[in-house]
Amino acid sequence: MTATEAAPSEVARPAGVARSPHLVASRRSRAARLRGAALLGLGLALAVALSLALGARATDLATVVTALTDPGALGDPADAVAVRDLRVPRTVIGLIVGVALGLAGVVMQGVARNPVADPGLLGVTAGASFAVVLGIALAGETGVIGLAVWALAGALVTSLGIGALARAAGDRATPALLVVVGFAVTAGLGTLTTLVLLGDPAALDRYRFWTVGSLTGRELDAALTLLPLVVAGVMVAALLARPLDALALGDDVARGLGFRLGAVRGGSLVAIVLLAGTATALAGPLVFVGLLGAHAARAAVGGHHGLLMPVAAVAGAAFVLVADVIGRLVAPPGELEVGIVIAALGAPLLIALVRARRAVAA
Amino acid sequence: MTATAPAPVTLSPDAPGAAAPALRAENLTLGYTKDRPVVHGVDVAVRPGALTVLVGANASGKSTLLRGLARLLPAHEGHVTLDGDPIERIPARQLARTIGVLPQNPIAPEGITAGELVARGRYPHQPVFRGRSSDDDAVVAASLAATDAASLAERRMDELSGGQRQRVWIAMALAQQPRILLLDEPTSALDVAHQVEVLDVLRAEVDRGTTVVVVLHDLTLAARYADELVVLCDGRIVAQGTAGEVLTEATVRDAFGIDARILTDPDTGRPVVLPRALVSPVASPVASTVPNPAKTPVVFQATV
């Protein structure tokens, strides 16, 4: 074949390529995406501010700022305690947990090609939480790192189990079926948890807050100790952005594009276990955060994982913080744990999502 | 191409005139379970730079063979080689830059636009942490243009017709800048106009120097477009060659179980298959005038 014969194979980049409708469109939507990202960032900042400013104890904005910058100058030292020792830790933990679960939700939905996948709904956080109970009751585990190891192991075993089940079911592993299985796993583990704790009142006491999910009673130190696990999870997830984009086109297409399914699934497992396991160790078994984070992000920026992941992380964090703030305000002087608030907000949303998808399918 | 145009984008990555890579299967046995092979010890050399069409009855192993050639299915026995190297030893990303695959029933994620979909075909060329470059954009635009889908770039996949969608998928595979393109029944579920539309795109790709292997059902269209026709029956190749050589009444009878008359298209000189009646089901497909395919697999080799 000569060069002249090959000439038709060379598609000259026309001078106007940059102005082709496709590329103009992507630039326009880039602006829209930037606006969306800015809005989300603003929303998160607002959620952080609310989390620092609102609580059972009334504190005005000036007091909050003074407590953060110069606690000694406050008239009432109780204000400083409320802001610095109570609200700052739970805000930081809420951020970490929300980011981790939002990201874990995106990775799960991507690897399972299942729009209702969520570490909570599929039973992964329940598995992590049950493992923690075992750690508390059987091994007398109390240390942060020790409990986190139990949580990660529990998340790993549950994820492997759910994954094996999904693959065994093959084409019958519909999104709905997996959620039903997840509920069954959660219910089963709940029963086992009760069995374990019935014989051990002390463990029950320590565990009580945790089962419903709560950001209180957690030390900032504990959160910072576990932060590297979440960071590692975030990094693995970032590496998965493109493989998950490819996987969204089907297993064969992904392999045709040069991705190895085993590596993608293994990486996803690592990311999910690190993110959901650590989040559970920090805040108990929260459901819906991953689902809501991922769906909010999908609605805002579409299905591109490189964008979906950071946006879902931010959305998840904002969601956890807002739910926590609502929990502080609805039943003064007491509080509603964040897990209850999230479930109350998330359940109707899940139903709406499932109904909307059925309408599309019909 | 105008003199003022910047560096040209070619959909084939190598220098023009470079020898097309040779894809071949040797004693290839494939299957979905170990004990029940679907393809039995097939030897086939894909003719470089040509449009090869795999035909055969349902469950004859044509899709399975294509999946084996594309490394979507590991060999039970024998192997597939690319320029002499066993493909399982070639790094996946590198292979994806040489062989583009369009499997049956790919999934278009909800809400994705044609342009976004085609851009994913660039992944084998992109370093892990680098975004889309302007080169990528140019290849995407060229791929869409090559499949006559440039005007669809902004449209969402779920609002396109079947034929349009299939052209976009082919554009995605082209964005990989493959030297070899493997497609599994890209025309199934399309009406005849859309089938012709898709096959014209493939013909044009072959004219640009790409090697194309495609699984088709329609024998007359296969004969019309194929440079090389490979007929499979019961997991074995029963005939390989040009459509005129291969599509005989005996071969059609053996491979498809129908009595057919073969006419010649007065315009193209290609064979046209007119099915007449089912062969009575007791007739064994192997008891035929064609040499036993299990013992004498046909290997056809040709230069460009």
How does the SSE layout of this entry go?
The complex is a heterodimer of chains A (362) and B (304).
Chain A lengths: L2 H4 L3 E2 L9 H33 L7 H9 L7 H36 L11 H14 L6 H26 L5 H24 L2 H12 L7 H20 L1 H7 L3 H6 L4 H23 L5 H13 L3 H26 L7 H24 L1
Chain B lengths: L8 E2 L12 E11 L2 E10 L5 E6 L5 H8 L7 E6 L2 E2 L5 H7 E4 L11 H6 L14 H13 L15 H14 L4 E5 L7 H16 L3 E5 L3 H7 L2 E6 L2 E6 L1 H4 L2 H8 L1 E7 L6 E8 L26
Parallel strand pairs in B: 4-9, 4-10, 7-8, 8-9
Antiparallel strand pairs in B: 2-3, 2-5, 5-6, 10-11, 12-13
Helix pairs in contact in B: 4-5, 5-6
- The count of helical stretches of chain A stands at 15
- The CATH class of the domain at 23-106 and 180-278 in chain B is identified as Alpha Beta
Largest sheet of chain A: none
N-C termini distance of chain A = 52 Å
What is the assigned CATH homologous superfamily of the domain at 23-106 and 180-278 in chain B? P-loop containing nucleotide triphosphate hydrolases
Number of helices of chain B: 9
CATH topology of the domain at 105-203 and 211-287 in chain A: ABC transporter involved in vitamin B12 uptake, BtuC
Helix content of chain A: over 70%
CATH-derived architecture of the domain at 105-203 and 211-287 in chain A: Orthogonal Bundle
Q: How would you state the average pLDDT of chain B, rounded? A: 84
Strand order of the largest sheet of chain B: 7-8-9-4-10-11
CATH first level of the domain at 105-203 and 211-287 in chain A: Mainly Alpha
Which consecutive residue ranges of chain B, at least 5 long each, have pLDDT under 50? Answer: 1-8, 13-17, 283-304
Would you kindly provide a brief summary of this structure?
Chain A: It is found in: Cell membrane. The complex is a heterodimer of chains A (362) and B (304). Chain A is globular, with a radius of gyration of 23 Å.
